[in-house]
Write a structure and sequence with these properties.
This protein has 11 helices and 10 strands. By secondary structure, the protein is α/β, with parallel strands linked by helices. The strands form 2 sheets. Strands 1, 2, 5, 6, 7, 8, 9 and 10 form an 8-stranded mixed β-sheet that branches. Strands 3-4 form a two-stranded antiparallel sheet. A hairpin with a 2-residue loop joins strand 7 and strand 8. The longest helix has 25 residues. It starts with 13 loop residues before the first strand and ends with a helix.
Length: 366
């Protein structure tokens, strides 16, 4: 018996994946990216996200509107606040908008509990903001029944189990995902956002474990090769050295949340080469005359190959990264929901995605 064809076979089908990071109001940038991807008629088999990336992913895959990009942009314009003057410089605008969000919340996303009687017992409260408004807003833009259609994109949402400290993954192919599952991925404790209880699990933001849930996508779909689009909201490189404590915290935050999937991609390629080598070894051994004992060992080799190739044999064929750039470094930029900033982020996402697609087309094909 010959071994099955390895996943290194170039003729094998692959699935197209969109991975969306968390990043608060910076998620508007992902909206702009998706507008460009839809304009280029790029269809996704899998859309995965965490935190605000999970919210975006849910609207893309379960959009009430037949035009998901338009629906997603309307969602972001709904979240935007219109009190902060648009004429202010970028950093000043970000400061005033984030301060307003921290004090008054956002009526469409999160509300503070300042005036609740329990707030008098401040130090015994596990959170400062309730994200029920975000869940209600999400419902206005989604029809989760669409996820049951196998022709629809697969939705993967990641969150963090508070008690076990492990990732909790919701997959539309096996779970009946609703607004609660999506909101569960967005409870960021460092900003005082509340957790969500799903069954007997208490869940926080998925960014606590990974802000770029590519590994979770591979685990959920380990047999099929992938072409991956990753939106990176946090700059990986910054040439300027921080000048004060706020800038130090900002840079540390960016490093913690930036895309770190290069190792995952490298390991995928290593596994691909290993599988190809094992197959070559198999073909050589099969053409030789083996005694009974060697034949038994060879059978074990075939079983192990099938396990690797068929159960964990998916490789990442290509990665297209669309990365947000920034001229101003401000720690709470991800809490700036001012209408001017939201519109600028959407525009930047559109332009950067367009440039990334052009650059990808110019790259030599392997």
């Amino acid at each position: 018996m010959r071994l099955k064809k390895s996943t290194v076979d170039e003729t094998r089908d692959f699935e197209t994946v969109l991975v969306l990071q968390g990043g608060g109001s910076l998620g508007a940038y992902e909206c702009g990216v998706y507008k460009t991807l839809q304009k280029h008629k790029i269809k996704f088999d899998v859309v995965a996200g965490t935190s605000i990336g999970g919210i975006n992913a849910a609207i893309i895959t379960a959009s009430k509107d037949d035009n998901p990009a338009k629906n997603l942009e309307e969602f972001w314009l709904t979240l935007a606040e219109r009190t902060t003057p648009s004429f202010l410089p970028e950093e000043t605008r970000a400061f005033f908008s984030s301060m307003q969000s921290s004090i008054y919340g956002n009526p469409k996303a999160f509300e503070p509990i300042w005036f609740a009687p329990a707030f008098l017992n401040f130090f015994n409260l596990p959170h400062l903001y309730d994200i029920t408004p975000l869940k209600n807003t999400l419902k206005e833009y989604t029809d989760f029944g669409k996820l049951k259609d196998p022709k629809n994109s697969r939705l993967i949402i990641t969150s963090t189990d508070i008690q076990s400290g492990k990732s909790c993954i919701f997959d539309s192919r096996r779970d009946n995902i609703d607004a609660d599952h999506v909101i569960a991925s967005a409870g960021y404790p460092f900003y005082g956002i509340s957790w969500t209880q799903i069954g007997d699990r208490y869940l926080w933001d998925g960014t606590l474990l990974s802000n770029t849930p590519l590994t979770e996508v591979i685990d959920a779909s380990p047999r099929q090769d992938k072409k991956v689009y990753i939106v990176n909201l946090f700059p990986q490189r910054q040439d300027e050295i921080p000048k004060n404590m706020m800038e130090s915290w900002h840079r540390a935050r960016d490093i913690m949340h930036t895309d770190k999937t290069s190792h995952t991609v490298r390991m995928s390629r290593v596994i691909s080469r290993q599988l190809a080598l094992i197959k070559e070894m198999h073909d050589i051994i099969e053409s030789s005359n083996l005694d009974k004992r060697s034949e038994e060992k060879f059978s074990l080799l075939k079983l192990e190959y099938h396990r690797l190739a068929c159960e964990r044999g998916a490789i990442i064929k290509q990665v297209i990264r669309i990365a947000r750039k920034e001229d101003v470094h401000f720690l709470f930029e991800d809490a700036d929901f001012s209408i001017a900033t939201i519109k600028q982020l959407i525009k930047n996402g559109e332009e950067d995605a367009e440039n990334a697609l052009v650059a990808n087309d110019k790259m030599p094909k392997k």
